[in-house]
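Progress report, Aim 2. The chain analyzed during this reporting quarter is listed below.
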Amino acid sequence: MNVVIKHIKKIFLGNDKNIEKKAYVWVILGAGTFSSISPALLFFVTRFLGTEEAGIFSLGFSFAQLFSIIGLFNIRMFHSTDVMHSYSFGEYFSARILSVIVMLGVSIFFTIINGYYFQKALVLIFLTLLKVSDCFSDVCEGEFQRNKRVDLAGKTQFIKSVLSIIVFIATLLFTKNLIISIILQCTILLVTTLVIDLPAILDFSALSFSFNIKRVAVLFTECLPLFINAFLLMLIYTLPKYAVDRNFPSDYQAYYNILFMPSFVFNLAAAFLINPVLSSLASFWTAKDINGFKRTLSKQIFAFIAILIPLIIGGYFEGIPLLNIVYGVNLDIFKNMFMVLLFGGCFNAFAVLLLSLGVIFRKQRDFMLIYAAAAVVCAIFSFLLPLRIGFEGVAWAYFIAMTVLCTALAGLTIGNMKRKDI
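Predicted structure tokens for the chain:
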């Protein structure tokens, strides 16, 4: 068994030639397949089990993502930009164990107080367990990225995403049982984490547990603003879905999620452009190499805008017809709603880029009030607009919140950069 794991590790690590080119390729593949998990699973659940179970799955997946923010604690961005190695991998890993335990406890408590019926409760609990593997993979990927091996972070994300989709679809096809499919998906992801991620980490850091309460507490304190920002952002994603659950039949939950999925293409573009250079930008900033920082950042922003324009045009003309074909439902009457969500996704992606800069500047605390304000705006409009204008109101609630978030973050980021004469 050890020989097999060593062989897998050797293949996985590869060599360090042309790392920058490999990084872009693997980030595209990794982020692309990871982003496709939710729409792919929703597609097959809709096809095999119908829109009602697809609605239950969509809501459960959304809440599992919300709870995963607790498990991740959004430490990854801080971890990957910790180029001075202020904290060891053991300290990051120990912090992750504690945050995952809290995540599981919160998900069980939430399920109990909402009084979900048995199947809905099981779907939510097992989808949260699915996120446990994501949480431990994330801390390993952060260490790869900190050590300038972004290619490995993308590679492991790609491998596990592909396996996750294949196992889920195959199980669903043969059993027609949603819960069994999720359980087997959890199993394969945990196995790949143990076989691929953890052995590979040993080439960069000692795999140790450091329950130094003081150090771990300081790490949590430094990353608390990032956690709050991430939780509020996920809340903004979830509040419209919660409004759909409260005001419309279960199949509308599936329709909303189908319309919402393409907006995350913009997040994929943001990840593709910022992740490979995040550590480099942090290094430029730490070394006070302002020219290198500006040159790299400008290049990524212009590339991002160049990607957004054709995506928006393509979405307007071909988005709904393509979704009709892929998901086998008629969404023609929701075209305006689709475009509202698409533009909301565009603002969301810009917000992700701006948050990355805030972390590099170590100004993450300044962003908390902005995220809180955007979440309050989303909560208010998610409550009011569906009652006033119907189903499309949930999309407008998301769009308005994202516009507020992106505009305010841009103003704060520009202010920070001017103070540094950038």
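The chain has a mean pLDDT of 84. Residues 1-211 form one domain. These observations will guide the mutagenesis work planned for the next reporting period.
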